Amino acid sequence: MLRTTLAGLRMHKGRLVTTALAIILGVTFVSGTLVFTGTLNESFNAQVKGSADGFAAIVLPDNDQGDGSEPTLLSQRTLDDIAALPEVTEAGGVIRGDTPLLDTEGRVVGNLPTAGVSVGDSTRYSAAEGELPADADEVALATGSARETGHGIGDEVQILDHEGAEHTFTVTGLVDFGVGSEFSFTGAVAFDETTAKEMTGVDGLSEINVTGAQGTTDEAVTEAVAAVAGDAEVLTGQEFGQRLAENAGADSQVLTMALMLFALIAMFVASIVIYNTFAILLAQRQRETALLRCVGAGRGQVFRGALLEAVIIGAVSSAVGVLAGIGVGYAGFAIGGETLGATVSSTSVVIGPAVVVAGLAVGTVMTVLAMLVPAIRSTRVPPLAALRTSATAQGLEQGIGWVRIAGGVALFLLAAALVRWAMALSSSGPSEHGLLVVTLGGFAAFLGVFVLGPLLVRAIVAALGAPMRKLGAAGALAADNTRRSPKRAATAMIALTVGAALITGYSVISASMESTITDQLERQFPVDYTITPQFDTETGEGIPPAVAGRLEDSPAIATVITERTAYTGGGEARTDLPVSAYYGGAVGTDVGASLKSGDLSDLAPGKVVVAEVYAEGRDVGATFTVPTEQGERDFEIAAVTAGTDGLWGVTMDPDDFATYFPDATDAQSVSVRAADGAEDDEVHDAVYAAVEDDPTLQVMSTAQLKNEITDFLDTAFLVIAAMLGLSVLIAVFGIANTMALSVLERTRESALLRAMGLAKGQLSRMLSMEAVLLCLIGAVLGVGLGVVFGWAAGTVVLSDLLLTVPVARIALLIAVAVLAGLLASVLPARTAGRTSITGALASE
Amino acid sequence: MNERATLATPEQRSYAAPPAVTARDLTKVYGAAHAGVRALDGVSLEFTRGEFTAIMGPSGSGKSTLMHCLAGLDSATSGSVLLGGTDITRLGSRQLTLLRRDRIGFIFQSFNLLPMLTAEQNILLPSRIAKRTVDRSRFDHIVNVVGLTDRLDHTPSKLSGGQQQRVAVARALLNEPEVVYADEPTGNLDSRSGAEVLAFLRDSARDLHQTVVMVTHDPVAAAYADRVVFLRDGRLVGEIRQPDAETVLNCLVRLEG
Known about the structure:
A: 844 residues, alpha+beta, ten-stranded mixed β-sheet, 25 helices, B: 257 residues, alpha/beta, Rossmann fold, six-stranded mixed β-sheet, four-stranded antiparallel β-sheet, 10 helices
């Protein structure tokens, strides 16, 4: 049997090429992901560990104070005590504080102040480029901060000290603080020790790096240091490195999960393709199989033969896939690693045994599983079938299939019920469970399409048949050919449905999110610029009243709305109740929010607008008690807002606010609207001139924010579409394969058509139309599923979602599907056109 | 009734019409020119309009090759084939396709019909390919004569072998081609169905003035023809007019010997 199987494989290897390609692509993705993330991880580990391994011990402030307050910094005395230990050669402290870095426009960078770090003699950090600062007017920038501001080595940069005074430094080098470091969000600048102390104004150390004496083990040093360090946490360099590596690993783990998800989708699509190929191959081989049974092969032997074939194809293709995956993974790392913060040059590719084993196992097991059903079916072939000609249009005789319809409809109903349930779950706000339920609903609907697939194909072809017949004989034949084995056609197109549905679904979510956010910006903050302080509003200072004054004086600006907020606790409010008031603009027209009940314009002295969370069930007209600076006061609720956008906490009338919170005079935000007819440049200049003296104030332009959101969403879409593109590619291979196998099966038919005068061009047009029809059905079903479940998922995640169907992107997707169909039919059409008419008619 | 069918009488068939198909010195060599197999070795033949001719010969005599070359399905190594006034050996593959489409009808031994089309669709297929409008009365007449009127909506799998072959015959005749080539049309049929098909081919030659060329190895089938030509080793070796099964069989036995 083994010999027969091998001979069969050799003979039919042409028919298996695309199957093998589907497996190879899937396995390449899986093992590529493993190699990529493994190498990335190794690179991260090397970076963070390398920096800590050099020290015998690291001393950190005791983080766990139990009351959540800031940890007490290490003192200079602790450092001196440690340095004096006989086990210690050298000990250096690290000063850390806030030193806002200014960008080229003279504004602070980012929402959080840039961190200032000291790099003395004993530092874990080294310069990735250039030198560490050695002088009072020198500074090194974190690689991220340098990228964000565009500053490079040799440039002069402005940095604010703890009192807000501006200092100028020359950049001497760039420091790579590593992925997952505490500076990921803030960015960082590095000074020498004295300068760091002056700039940050921090008296105390956030870390002490200890170098042990010759011949003393790290453990001994750590023990000795712990004895003099008091409450502080003392770790060996290795332990500390381990901890850093774990933090970095968490980052790359998210990436691994995401890539693996896409890899699994690709594998799933590949398994559909493999299933279809084997189903067709074994059906075509029916007579061979029957002949084997005639000459005495048992059912078991037939089954084992088919299985063996799957194992061989799976294992060989997987091996190729693993090799390709190693290449792709490392290439990916070399190209994309730098962007993710890895040092590419010093990292060698990591190929664990897991990569090889997982790649081989996933590919082979999947192939065998996909083969099971066709293999079992092939054992049912009776020996007598050897004497019959195989029916090539078995699909036509099949009835409607009531079981199929019932099953499909039941699955669709289940999907609808799940979506409704998800909507109910998330009706009171975004819900994670809702998303899970929508996903389940998506699966149910997909299964429904799978079950109804053959009928859908028949119905759609019947509907499209009439216009296709108008296109001439080729079109009519294409429609009839698609109808003849609807199961095969359905399985081929379903593979494409997966990718099309996911791409459409994501693009619907993305487009809807974009229009929802844009709409919220326009409706709830109909302003052009918003100025906010950089530091957290709860403790930090607000915006000086002079800023609003300067803006009001500017002719380019029509409206200036200032928001004042006070945080108050106690009373019947939750722990922290923010109370705000808007000056210069009316709530309801200039400042909006999603409403649950009431009317924002009803806000008047004695009344408040309350966010739903704080209202705790009370509705319009009820009494709401606010603990003001003047004691508790009762207000009537004018409106209750929903969601987290727009108004938050309690909003009261400006006069009430002035009465009850006389101390809260600083603005928490200043929003401006341009005067009619003012040039964009004028407005920009007016806003920046108003904040010139206060570099820490953040200026946000609504237009720029919209652009940033659009850019971000577009980039995410492109990345995700590219990842799903592989699944689409595999599905197209599947369609090409189905076409190629059908062409082989129909060689005599094609010859007959040619003999009757069908031109080569018409024959290949017929095949193209068949492939395009399959691709179109697959893509359109996918688009349908994608729009519905994209909307469902979007609604669950984001309340008040404005459904936006990205018509252009969907049209592009469908155009790609048509193109894919044309490509998929190129080779089969060539084979069909080349076959000699007399040869094909003569051979039985 | 079709005009030609009513006009076609035995008297008219007797006048010397120009041949529908003429083969001159037809040679077909497979493989290299000097060492190759000579499947056809200088065959010259004429097929009179409205005549039913059978080509016979032992296996490997070149009868199928001859038919393929006559039909423009295969190209001859040398010599010429005239269909009406057209030398088809000079045509390119595109022109040949059009020629087959518009001027030739085919009937094959098996796999004659497209499985996904109904009997009617199969019969109309060549017209669809050529985008020709169909003469409905001729269609009805032919369908009626071959006895398929009640079976037009059936797919081939629901038809018997004889019925399938009659669909093929109807398809070949519908467009009034200049010549119909039939390759072992009864090879897969039982004797009764075979007789029906052959009788119909004979009648179409007589009544519809249709030129028919049939390749067969069955003397009984050949006996339905007006004329039988014999091939052996790629050469024309004999001819019988108004044959009956016995004379054909005798002739074959002589050839084999």
